[in-house]
Fold this protein.
Amino acid sequence: MAGPPITVTCGCGEIRYLAYGERWTCEKCGTAWNTAQIPREDYDAVLRLRRRHIYAPATVFVLAAATVALFIILGRAYAIILLPFAMMGWFVFGRPFQRRRLAAQMKELPEWKLTPE
C-alpha cells in the first residue's frame, strides 16, 4: 500500500503532492524540495495509522459475512437477515467510534516543516 501524499507548499504559493522520498523543483521560482527530510519513523507511523483505518472495517465485514455463511451452512438460511443488522451496527456504532479515534490519533502526529535545498 502506497503511503499518503505529502503536501509541499512552496514560498511562491505553488502546491504539490509528493510521495515520501520524492524531490521536486518548483517551476515558478526554482526552489528544490526533498521529502526525504521527514524522519522515516514518523512517516511509518502515518502508514500504520492508515492501514489500521482501512483494515478494521474490512475485518469487521469479513467476520460478519463468515458468521452468516456459517449459519447458512448449518441450515439456518434465515440468518442472511443478520448481515444487514451487522452492517447497520457497524455504521451506527463502529464507524463513528473508529473515526473519532482516527481523528484523535491524527492530531497526535507531528507536522513537518520542510526546508528548501
In short: The first helix runs from residue 40 to 73.
